[in-house]
## 1
Amino acid sequence: MSETTTSPAAEGAGGPPSEVAAPHRYTAALAADIEARWQDFWESAGTYEAPNPSGDLAGDSALTARPKKFIMDMFPYPSGAGLHVGHPLGFIATDVYARHQRMTGHNVLHTLGFDAFGLPAEQYAVQTGTHPRVSTEANIVNMRRQLRRLGLGHDQRRSVETIDPAYYKWTQWIFLQIFNSWYDPEADAARPIDTLVAQFEAGTRPTPDGRPWGELDAAEKAGVLGEYRLAYASDAPVNWCPGLGTVLANEEVTAEGRSERGNFPVFKSKLRQWNMRITAYADRLLDDLDALDWPEAIKLQQRNWIGRSEGARVDFPVGDDKITVFTTRQDTLFGATYMVLAPEHELVAGNGNGSIVPAAWPEGTHEVWTGGHATPGDAVAAYRKQAAAKSDVERQAEAKDKTGVFTGAFATNPVSGAQVPVFIADYVLMGYGTGAIMAVPAHDSRDFAFARAFELPMRCVVQPSDDRGTDPATWDDAFASYDAKLVNSSGAEISLDGLGVVEAKAKITDWLADRGIGEGTVNFRLRDWLFSRQRYWGEPFPIVYDEDGVAHALPASMLPLELPEVEDYSPRTFDPDDADTRPETPLSRNEDWVDVELDLGDGNGVKRYRRETNTMPNWAGSCWYEMRYLDPTNADAMVDPGIEQYWMGPREGQPSGGVDLYVGGAEHAVLHLLYARFWSKVLHDLGHISSSEPFHKLYNQGMIQAFVYRDSRGIAVAAAEVEERDGAYYYQGEKVSRVLGKMGKSLKNAVTPDEICVEYGADTLRLYEMAMGPLDVSRPWDTRAVVGQYRLLQRLWRNVVDEATGEVTVVDTEPDEATLRALHKAIDGVTQDMANLRFNTAIAKVTELNNHLTKTTGPVSRTVAERLVLLVAPLAPHIAEELWRKLGHADTVVHADFPVADPAYVVDETVTCVVQIKGKVKARLEVAPSVSDADLEAAALAEPAVVAALGGAGIRKVIVRAPKLVNIVPA
């Protein structure tokens, strides 16, 4: 069909085409009408509602006849700023994929909820006095409106909000399952805590002090079980942020040692906090990555974060105590000439009054070891305070000046018997190993630098492979090698001299184990998950404490434990630089809620208890939301087992089960994704779900970026008001700089989807975001380029509808062969692109087909028009529905069959064969793709140009690579 005539403005370069043309032209106004009508239709008809199995799945023939597909986006947070055009990129992509899956016969579950607890709403409440629920729910309403306008095909019946008590009832229930569980190494799985109690009662597992279980009082029993529970409270080093008044997870602290939110200083401090024993699952979290269809970069991040390393535990006696270290180089034990503890280590904790810190400096203590302090206690206390002001990253960074202080204590090297001084230094962290190291300065660069700074002895125990000799005093740096032989490593009971590293490791490990002073072990970088927050806006812990301080779980009948009303939503904040302060939570101020009398159903009747006044972190609700999508209204269970098995259970190619496609940002690699995997494994072990992994296939979408314009002060200015002149950029007459960065309200470069929908329509926005480039690559937003996809839809409309009359123009005649080939090649290409999330190339193929029809003389064949509409339907569903209805179909296009390509038309009718003589092209032949070698050779030799080029010369050899090449070698 030929193009209709439009005004010059209609085809102009900037902005949408002029809307002064024919009355039935596809315009922004018509798009808005079409989109609103079809969105209302989909909602009223329940078009996107995915049925669940009922009862015996085998009896659900309508379901079992179709394969299922569970597609998810990462949980969005309902920001008060609403969406900008960067936010829906992943949402549109999963919607396109879900629509294609429906059209290829799948029962598709696709919905979206809101991860609505967290600090932003609480900070807004502190500033305005507005209850966090009020502002959060208002934000959700606005976000739902924006998402609906994009035509996203979500099953709204399944949408959840983490702040809904009916939802967080089950978050609390899951916490109690974890609290009431322990990790059984023999079963390599979590088991109910009652099975551990039974072992203690039967005497098959001894208590720590050997007393019978029945002789322990309630507090003692609770203390023993707390060492095993998967959710436990302990006094542990935490990231204390006085400026926010709360404790932060490691992942919420920047590399500069400041809070992600507010940029306040963060200090190391010991507080009683709830933790999740995720370390018990370290091996399984590592091993099970292999079966997941995830980007290798994300797997690598998780492997590095878990950080598995094999080595040995070694005990160094110190007075009546001992220092335990973990080392991967136990073969160098003879070279350990001093020890270093983390400043937070329990043996020096308590401001210098720890168990190994003496009252006075030992006689002859080197002046440089004391830090200028009169006593070891003073030195340790001062250094611990100094170290608390640094982040872990700062402490681990290579620094020219090594800092530390002598504790005044000496430990005994267990192989040599030598007395080695014990220091504290900030380059040793409590978060790795045991928080203590044996320093072998001759063979570790950091230890070497520390030893030089503090004039400590060094001993070479690994033979250098260069000519430096074996006296470290003459070296410029340490010598490290895993291939060299051991030297200077002989004692009264064992000698490692002459052995290689592997043999020496094995020998010393056995020697340590035989004497009960060490053993081979595996260590992990992963630490237990800090699970407490000193905030109001989070899930309350379903835990109460009795008068002895023993924690008790609330019975399930008391869930949900809802948040009470409070007058002040903020935790008490302090001087940001005062590391010695302690948190005070908003919940602790509501004494009527905190102090309660309850009958917990444990046979003890009504007793007085005190509630836990911390709340769960904002990660809690997102650890399991995929399961609630499956069965969101179930009041009796987190999810019905049969429903979970249907949507997420293990199956061929997915041995661990999980969501079929999960799309979101790569920034959650070691936070949400690791936590969710942990919760799934615990729930799987306890028999609540069949899937041991939450997400089988993960896809990380890129980011939509935008130009940020800054004035001479470095302040961002409104991007929409910036003018470009002669390659420079000006804001209100002042020249400004331009860099590509994030899009956001604070950078004054945000473009809302509402703006684009008003100017062009939602289908145009959808197409533009999908056409900008590969989904997993970041790309810059350019509002001026949106018009290209708008014109594509206008041409599509014109190929079906007469702009003057509004009548359908297609004809019931068969298309010509060229059009059939263009059609089926497009179908074949789009089908492959949809399956592989290559939406930008799918749009290119649709555009190519549509342009072919536009250039064709006469009206479009109905056969071609209908299939073109079906190809467009996942990408631009509103215009597809409208055209599908105009083409005479009563049913929605959402559930129509996606077209299937005819292979006969996908293969090119002819291909070009190059004929060469002595490597030079002499002719080109158009031949059938299926031509045989013999026929192709005959055709090439008969070609007049080839005959002339040979000039009667004989032929020594003909090389044929049908159908594209013939190479003739003359005699």
## 2
Amino acid sequence: MSDTTPAAETAAPHRYTAELAAEIERRWQDHWDEHETFAAANPSGELDQRPDLVARPKKFIMDMFPYPSGAGLHVGHPLGYIATDVFARHQRMTGHNVLHTLGFDAFGLPAEQYAVQTGTHPRVSTEANIVTMKAQLRRLGLGHDRRRSFATIDPEYYRWTQWIFLQIFNSWYDPDAGRARPIEELVRQFEDGVRPTPGDRPWSALTGPERADILSEYRLAYAAQSPVNWCPGLGTVLANEEVTAEGRSERGNFPVFKANLRQWKMRITAYADRLLADLDALDWPEAIKLQQRNWIGRSEGARVDFPVPGADRPVTVFTTRPDTLFGATYMVLAPEHDLVDAIVPDAWPEDAHPVWTGGHATPAEAVAAYRKQAASKSDVERQAEAKVKTGVFTGAYAVNPVTDKPVPVFIADYVLMGYGTGAIMAVPAHDSRDFAFARAFELPMRCVVEPTDGRGTDPETWDDAFASYDARIIGSARADISLDGLGVVEAKAAITAWLEERGLGEGTVNYRLRDWLFSRQRYWGEPFPIVYDEEGTAHAVPDEQLPVELPEVDDYSPRTFDPDDADTSPETPLSRNADWVTVELDLGDGNGVRTYRRETNTMPNWAGSCWYELRYLDPHNSEQLVAPDAEAYWMGPREGQPAGGVDLYVGGAEHAVLHLLYSRFWHKVLYDLGHVSSYEPFHKLYNQGMIQAFVYRDARGIAVPAAEVEERDGAYFYQDQRVTRVLGKMGKSLKNAVTPDEICAEYGADTLRLYEMAMGPLDVSRPWDTRAVVGQYRLLQRLWRNVVDEATGEVTVVDTEPDEATLRALHKAIDGVTADMAGLRFNTAIAKITELNNHLTRTSPGAVPRSVAEPLVLLIAPLAPHIAEELWSRLGHTGSLAHEDFPVADPALVQDETVTCVVQIKGKVKARLEVSPTVSDADLEAAALADPAVVAALGGAAVRKVIVRAPKLVNIVV
């Protein structure tokens, strides 16, 4: 670190220090706020004050929504925010109208849990956290358009979240049109008889609840009884994505069980094909696209019906291998399957194998016990390749439709309701999980795909199943069809056609994607704009009565239970607020004022983040979700961006599925209904890496304060006790967090910004090292000295022309930094700026030419904006440099004046020539053959061939 002794400060009172940096930074941050320096202009409306900006090309740059934590920021949090700020500042300086702002995703479980623990209302603690976070982000010099900021807890914001929910609720997906349509159009089809009702009863003859039930089968937002993840310890249900691989809640680490509850869901599955296909139009990391494709999980196959004697309907399975249907020797249903209770007999069949019954007296007892066991496992656990397969016989048999033979029906936890139909036909000879299950339960196996590895066709002699798509079908014939000798593809087509002809099945496409569970039994979330009449029918609250505001309550904790007690059910905090739940309303449906009951679940915290990019465009519009011209200007399709969307969206890869998939779904519904012109929300996605930190643990494995650990001879000690060190996340619980406030106080915000950008490539995780921060601090001190005299405070630049070497160094830096900025390679941009600054320190100390100093200040301005603004001002310019033109390189000065050409004879270097970068092959050959060293090396030998690779290589063959 630089000398900061009193003597040094007296000798250099105008040195760039942390104190001076803090004064400069505060002053320029105030200037930016006062002059709305970073305000982006809309084409019309309240934010259209700058027509000169609207005439420029636009650039919409976004960070993923931050959650305002009470712990505040550590230095790992701002990595992406600083990066987008650097890019946004550069885009302004290259002539763009830039929209860059930041709001707060403020509903959710953390604030509610904190409220329950402390008695502080979640709005109070959340708003206090937002104030703290805004102050921390402002101190970093982030150039946000503050007029466009908001929080999801603002009623004027969630009024539109509720409005979007109602758009989805009042829509259905028309597969013929391939898009969402208003539910009124579906109702007209029922009224006109164009679309028959179940049972073909006239629409006019149906009761209100009957009509509601029918429409619920089509609505994109609907309530249904379904298996959900119930967490008694939290008192709420969770989406699959909120449950860990160990079957526990992400928040609180409580056990999660399967339960059947009535919940609101979103019919995202209707959009599965479009969500897949439209990925091709997006500039996203391939790894993220792959995760979305895998999550959607499209697979082609057939649905096959297996009749169950005595049941009113068959067991329907989805299989990707209908060609193996002749080899199905048993069936397995998910424990939650709704057909299980209907097929379980009162007593075991006489031929029930003892190992099938699990030692239970009756099938009902066996099923109940196994269901309880399965409910304690997560979907991930159930799908894991466990060595021991578990399950139990239901006591019922189904009939294989091609062999006409009975096959026993089991339940087992490796079959999920979340995939296919929740039932499988088991072909143990050709599926490893089925093979293991068949061995465990002594079930028959039948080979119907001829092995190509010489193992023979008797599965009883095999160690595992034979699974192949490149083999012939055998043992699969009956009087009216034979698959024998066919390949897999041909056999699939043949058996599917046979099934369809007889009404026993059909070819179909299946998806892993399930409809999105949209209910939470919490207080701190958006209320549903739904009320129920006395018959229990759901009604939408009219638009003019939005928002349905969250009531102020004293008791906002859900009812929680013994974490291990699966036999419980939710009780929501809102249900205890009788004055809010029961309401007199006129819904405008001609029925006048009636008494209704409000929905007492709340929306998940994902709701507010599904559409926030649209609110940034037009944040004060009280009449529309977003003005059409604002949406078209900022997000509409254009050349190179056929789907439209945000130009650059930066955030962590952990949101690869949940947030991104949900946002895409909402956006597509809005597009179908004509509310937006873009059909994707985010055109370019960039995942920044993580700033990591060393975690130090004592002998008990408990983290100790990293700042108090000493290194001695390669070992680490805390209070004279040796501790271990491992690289991990940064966080308060790991006692290794460093706050940006600490670094800003010691070095200044510009130094912090430079260090975080210089640590390495933006998309790579990197370790934090406070000791290394000083390197960027010294860069800024050298930059300051190249413009300002530390003793007098006077500007020292001169108006003389730079020499050619300096001129070339400048334009090479401009060229390199420009390319690096566009490619988000900020670490290499800083290296080039450092190289130019060091060149000036060596060659022009105290007398840097103005024509070099000013471009240098502009080059570093996006990265270190405060010191750049200050130096720009001291160089005689008024106002901010935020919209100054970024320097442009002269191509003639970017090229080296000369390059070194190597001359080889028999592969050995004999000479080096300094030549023009544009030298021709002929001239370079002549120069090489005339060089005295080459002539001497040839010694009169005949030259057979000269190979020229201008301007850097000549190879002479003798």
## 3
Amino acid sequence: MSETNSAADAAATHRYTAAMAADIEARWQDFWDAEGTYEAPNPTGDLAGDPELAAKPKKFIMDMFPYPSGAGLHVGHPLGYIATDVFARHQRMTGHNVLHTLGFDAFGLPAEQYAVQTGTHPRISTEANIANMTAQLRRLGLGHDKRRSFATIESEYYKWTQWIFLQIFNSWYDTEADRARPIAELVAQFESGERATPDGRDWSALNAAERADVLGEYRLAYASDAPVNWSPGLGTVLANEEVTADGRSERGNFPVFKAKLRQWNMRITAYADRLLNDLDGLDWPEAIKLQQRNWIGRSEGARVDFPVDGAGSVTVFTTRQDTLFGATYMVLAPEHELVERIIPAAWPEGTHPVWTGGHASPAEAVTAYRKQAAAKSDVERQAEAKDKTGVFTGAYATNPVSGEKIPVFIADYVLMGYGTGAIMAVPAHDARDFAFARAFELPMRCVVEPSDDRGTDASTWEDAFASYDGKLVNSANDEVSLNGLGVADAKARITEWLKEHGVGEGTVNFRLRDWLFSRQRYWGEPFPIVYDEDGIAHPLPESMLPLELPEVDDYSPRTFDPDDADTQPETPLSRNADWVNVTLDLGDGAGPKKYRRETNTMPNWAGSCWYELRYLDPNNSEKLVDPAIEEYWMGPREGQPTGGVDLYVGGAEHAVLHLLYARFWSKVLHDLGHVSSAEPFHKLYNQGMIQAFVYRDSRGIAVPAAEVEERDGAFYYQGEKVSRVLGKMGKSLKNAVTPDEICGEYGADTLRLYEMAMGPLDVSRPWDTRAVVGQYRLLQRLWRNIVDEETGEVTVVDAEPGEETLRALHKAIDGVGGDMAGMRFNTAIAKVTELNNHLTKAGGPLPRSVAEALVLLVAPLAPHIAEELWHRLGHTDSVVHQDFPVADPAYVVDETVTCVVQVKGKVKARLEISPSITDTELEALALADPAVVAALDGAGIRKVIVRAPKLVNIVPA
């Protein structure tokens, strides 16, 4: 604490100081814990026997899961936690049964990386981090129901994560019913012949491996060999969302390559339409909805099959099927599975030298180009590079509408992650195709007549004509002609023709890809899957859950040269042979058999896909969640047709990761009848960020912000001038301020007030430690208004407040209540401050009714001092569950004054208006008054003289 504060605090024995705040805060935190003050009753027990409690509306309020970092919290972290706590406290005081708690998302790569660096087991470091963060959060006085808290690393929690995985594994998506159904129902369809097998054989004729392969094409969780993002430097594969725009791992900044590995996937694409459509019913920021819509990426177009000699067909998806007659070549993604099948042994006669890349054979050219493409990120591959790269495969496809043979290339600007991984190239009408065609001297054909004066000879153009504004030309065969049609009509006509001839059909495509669900790590949930000697995957029975994470000699993933794309991952779990190789009786009638466990682990997203449900019923060992409890807290209701958490607060950075994944899991569980809510989070609120100044020396190295001095508008560290920019707060930037520091110097209530008063919750704001003292002084003034600093006695009196004080009080009650409900905490604090200042200036002891109302207004924001003052005022029950004050409308309305309105100097009307009315507002009221309108009788107005609030003089023309 500063010397100034120390001297002042010593002047009065009962002055509100940091030391007193620490004592008050610790005492009431202990009291709240002992009394279970924040425990939210569930409907299956407490509510059933308490009609008054059962009649209360419920409110389920959540923060996004924190990850227990070893660095602990800085003051930016609690911003959202304090905000939800303030809101939850206000909701309790307005008659709601509030569920508010917090757990820890504790699996993940950071703990594993720390373990690799230090040799500390991830569980040890994670549990230590949780203990530290729990203590830091408790010091803030957060009103959490601690009975409901948990960490995802607890086996009783991830037992149910594994159980949900098995529900997804044992399900398929019935497109006719538009929902997930148990896989057993699909098997019954195959057995009865209601559904034909892919090759037409009876289900009974298929062996076990063939049946598993068929079901794998339907399961919502399935294993497949697919292109993945492989990071040798991390020793694991990554989801698309975990790779940065420059093709490096989000964690560790290692290069990421494309590789083909057998991995677990979630068939989230089956839910693409529902994920898209159900956004409309959610109370989310439009920016987040837009990000999800763009990520899902629904587009309507057509599927077109291009026959390739000796290799079946290459299927493309296009939204410009009207330009099909202009397709003069094809491009496959380098990873496309058909590439190997279509490559001839030698270059066809007459192959253009530019197409070969200087290689002796197609196989050599493709191999070299694939290696080159694997070193690029998807973003780099799609960038508008000046030079287009690619290589001819040696194969030709047939354009199905023109019958023309067109060459098939591979090029890195085509991705497997969108569409079919193949495109029909129409260079006259697509900028990338145009650039590629120019580079490889490929033909161009104009099929949409340009609206400018460039003509229809595409070989003379400087760029592509990619507009929809034009009529079709050069687009006819013996059976169909698109010539003269507009783009929309041409699309419809050619789509119809494609379907008639069995070479395509209209279809919908999505940008969304299935969710890669495997990680080659130790610190994650084990998959409840074993493989038999034929490699067939079998789910563990529920009785064998949880499958606990075993000990291994070396729990770090095996990492490799970060630049070596040809390596293969080795999982830490594979090193525990006794755990991997087991003899089990799975209860399927086969008796004990030898199996091999899955040695990948689930991604860190798994535990946060359903944690809202565990908060509801955290000790249930028999069910995922009691249906009555889930229905009460999260079920659909008026205004919330898909159910979900009432308020979910967190950063916008999870728009297309956690939020999308959690929505998918929720819908599967809903379809299977396990929950009533089809969406996990009804209302989403994105908090802003607390920023801090970063100071850097001449080398660009961050220096300790706390040791920087400001002199004449410049900044110096140890005598050297440094630069200053506003940025993130963090340990690495040497500008982090811990909540412990602020609590130690001013108290937790001051920190809470300052963070809420800094600005609107949904915008970023800069931290300024020097400004914290302003909220500290507010609390000191509040204290002085109720407690004598010399004696410690309460100074309130049992007297009626005056008119002016009543108006100030009820205006504050009205304003603060509205601001609390709308999460405008900064303006709520401003109104409390205004009221407290009014009471200070009024002088004399406060009337008891005013003092108690003031304490209740402050209670959600600064709960410790409010609890202390509430008890000092003579109450024995907690302030937490008191009713929030209700404003008397008679005192909320401003006093009125009479305004005289004159026309030609004669009084025509008298208006009762607010003393604070503006000239503009008053003029509008006067001119609209019926008596004034009648007096003017349609005459024009030459001048209006306004002297608000008492006079308006109107001079007609």
